[in-house]
Structure formats: structure tokens, C-alpha cells
Design brief:
By secondary structure, chain A is mostly helical. Chain A is built from seven helices and no strands. The chains are: A mainly alpha, B mainly alpha.
């Protein structure tokens, strides 16, 4: 992928710290959220693409500069939550200005379960080895937001994100419960 | 990651399909994942916005563009 490789090479040449790239990505996502809040979906979609380029390259730049660190992973993960939440807040603002409390609630519930999707996995993986069940993870969510923005079908996208995020959270709870039960019974045997 | 159990299940085929769609254990780049993506895109693009009371949707969307293209 030539354009991305060119951006990565440029960042490496100027020794831009990967954590700075992650932070720039979040700031651009705030701009995308602002576009969504004003109802400029197509522009918001393009801004989301730019933001996600930064999200994509930060890890690669870290590897090339040999700056990979545990803190970098933590920082990236926390910044991802800021990005996710800001997009939902943009939509909540939009629907509230349109007087649509039903979609304010749908966006809020979708946001709650989108955050819980990451939380349940992080917490589960402190107890069990791996907890990668459930369909609706961050890449799926981001692509769906873009599809909703570019084709002006954000309401349908919110329903999909909401319902599948709820399913994902319960998948992770059930998986962890089952795994911990197995571990307990294996230890007892 | 655990694969879906292959032992005989008391559930019927449709019930098993719904269970595996909700309790999702498949990786990306599997036919199950592709099928889920198709189902999601069909819902997003083919559901009339009025059914969902979409506050922002305008026009007939991607399905309308296709109909217009083939007319």
C-alpha cells in the first residue's frame, strides 16, 4: 500500500513518536464526531478515514523506530475508547438537536455496550487466557460507522452496533463464566 | 479460542444457526463471518429508513441507486 507506506516512512524519517500519532488520530476523530454532530455525514466519513490512517500507522511506526512499549499499547487502547465515545457523542448531539429522544437513547445504549465490549475482554483476560468471542469488535464498529456515514444509513447502523454489541458483551460474560467453571473443576480433579 | 462443539446437538438446524450467530466464536475470513457481513449490509441497505424512523436518511439509498442504474 504505497500511500500508507509513504506516510509511515515520513513519520519514521522525522522520528515522530508513535504515541503522538495515536493522539493526533484521536483529535481527528473528534473532528469526525463534530461533523456527525452537525449532520455532515459524508465529510465525517472522510475525516474518519484520515483518523483511522493514524490509528493504523502508529503501531507500524513504533515497530520501525523500535519504540514498542507496554505503555504504548495501553495508551493506544485508552485513546481508542476516546475515539469511539466521541463518535457516539456526536450522534447523540445530532439526534438531540433534532428532538429525537428515541435515537438519543439508542445511541447511548449502543455506546454503553460498545465500551463494555472492550472492558469485558480486558477484564476477562486478567482471569482467563483469551476472550475473543463475539462479533462486534472495534474494526467492525468503525467500518459500520463509515458505511452509515457514506450511505446516510446511520440509524440502521446504530441498531446493528447496539444489538451486536449487547450480544458480544453477553458472549464474553458467558465464555468467561464457562472457562472459569472449567478451570475450577480441573483444579478440583 | 474454542471451536463450536461438533458433538450431536439437541437443537434443530435453525436454532443452532441462531445460537451460533448470537454466541459468536468464528474468526474473520471464515464463510460464517462473510455471511454475517452480508446479512448486516442487507439490513443496513435494504431496510426502508421509514421502518426504523431514521431521522436523517434521505432518498432511497444504495438500493435506489442500483434500481436507477439498471432502469
Amino acid at each position: 500500500m504505497f500511500p500508507l507506506q509513504a506516510i509511515i516512512t515520513l513519520c519514521v524519517k522525522f522520528r515522530i513518536h508513535p504515541n503522538v500519532l495515536t493522539f493526533i488520530g484521536v483529535l481527528i476523530n473528534f473532528a469526525a464526531a463534530w461533523c456527525l454532530a452537525l449532520g455532515h455525514f459524508v465529510l465525517g466519513g472522510f475525516v474518519m478515514i484520515v483518523a483511522n490512517i493514524f490509528d493504523f500507522i502508529d503501531g507500524k511506526v513504533a515497530r520501525e523506530l523500535q519504540m514498542e512499549s507496554a505503555f504504548g499499547g495501553f495508551w493506544d487502547s485508552v485513546m481508542d475508547r476516546f475515539s469511539d465515545i466521541s463518535l457516539f457523542i456526536g450522534l447523540i448531539y445530532l439526534y438531540s438537536t433534532l428532538g429525537r429522544t428515541d435515537y438519543v437513547m439508542i445511541s447511548a445504549v449502543a455506546m454503553m455496550f460498545a465500551i463494555l465490549t472492550s472492558y469485558t475482554r480486558a477484564r476477562a483476560e486478567s482471569l482467563v487466557e483469551k476472550c475473543k468471542v463475539g462479533f462486534m469488535e472495534r474494526p467492525e464498529r468503525i467500518v459500520l460507522f463509515m458505511i452509515g456515514a457514506f450511505t446516510n444509513r446511520m440509524a440502521a447502523v446504530l441498531w446493528v452496533i447496539g444489538i451486536l454489541s449487547i450480544a458480544t458483551v453477553f458472549d464474553r460474560i458467558y465464555y468467561t463464566w464457562r472457562e472459569l467453571g472449567h478451570t475450577k473443576s480441573r483444579a478440583a480433579a | 479460542m474454542k471451536k463450536p462443539e461438533s458433538s450431536p446437538s439437541p437443537l434443530t438446524l435453525p436454532a443452532r444457526a441462531i445460537w451460533h450467530a448470537l454466541y459468536w466464536t468464528y474468526e474473520r475470513a471464515t464463510w460464517q463471518y462473510d455471511l454475517m457481513v452480508i446479512a448486516i449490509l442487507a439490513f443496513v441497505w435494504l431496510t426502508p429508513p421509514s421502518w426504523l424512523g431514521d431521522p436523517t436518511a434521505a432518498g432511497s439509498g444504495p438500493i435506489g441507486w442500483l434500481i436507477h442504474l439498471f432502469r
